[in-house]
Amino acid sequence: MQRREVLRILATGAALQLAPAKMLLFAREVRTLMASQAAPLTLNAQQAATVATIAELILPRTDTPGATDVGATAFIDLILTEWYEEAERSRFLSGLADVDARSQRLFAKNFVDCSALQQSEILTDLGAQMMEEAERVRDQPPTLGEVPGGVNFYSMLRRLVLTAYYTSEAGATQELHFEMIPDRYEGCATPEEGGTTAK
Question: Whole-model pTM?
């Protein structure tokens, strides 16, 4: 499988619709790529902190790992670096800058320095804007050069966070309950159960 094909599938969220064995293959390949990446290549420290904070608000740690526990920020940086075109990368980074601009306007501080309640207020506004834009473009055919992953930044980010989480080992096993090896062996089935008998 080609590296860019793996990244394309993961970035669009299509991996979540694959058969478990194929999803495992994709996840293994992208996690290998992430392990070879020592530091973020596209996101600076402030942007990485903002992505990590938003990712953890989308999928917080509970009795299962959260988005930051499975390396969502590194996953997103890999997609931005290796797969997104310049226009897509710019849209994403502009969206991150807008998050801080909103928090400065509302609370006079960067998003990561806001309280959880203030951060939730900003994400609620972003979610409402995302839904409004989705309603507007629902019946319109895609135009040439349209950015995959949604029209707005928050849609792109949510899709990347969910894909990062559910293609991780923790997301696949603890949330999706994917089992590589079944928990029990069922021997020969009787004819009544749909099995065949040897002659």
Answer: 0.67
C-alpha dist (Å) from residue 53 to 36, 116, 185: 23, 10, 43
**Angle of CA points 103, 105, 110, to nearest 5°:** 35
C-alpha 68/C-alpha 129 separation (Å) is 25
pLDDT, one tens digit for every residue, the chain (199 residues): 444 554 455 545 554 454 455 555 666 666 666 666 666 788 999 999 999 999 999 988 888 888 888 888 988 898 888 778 888 899 999 999 999 999 999 999 999 999 999 999 999 999 999 888 877 777 666 554 454 444 588 988 998 888 887 777 655 555 544 555 555 555 665 666 554 554 4
Instruction: Give the separation between CA 109 and CA 112, rounded to whole angstroms.
Output: 8
- Structure tokens that stand for 74 in this block: 């590194």
The DSSP 8-state label assigned to residue 175 in this structure reads I
- Which residues, other chains included, contact 18 with Cβ-Cβ below 8 Å and sequence gap of 6+? 9, 26
Structural domain boundaries in the chain: 3-177
Tokens of 197: 């008998």
Beta strands in the chain (DSSP E): none
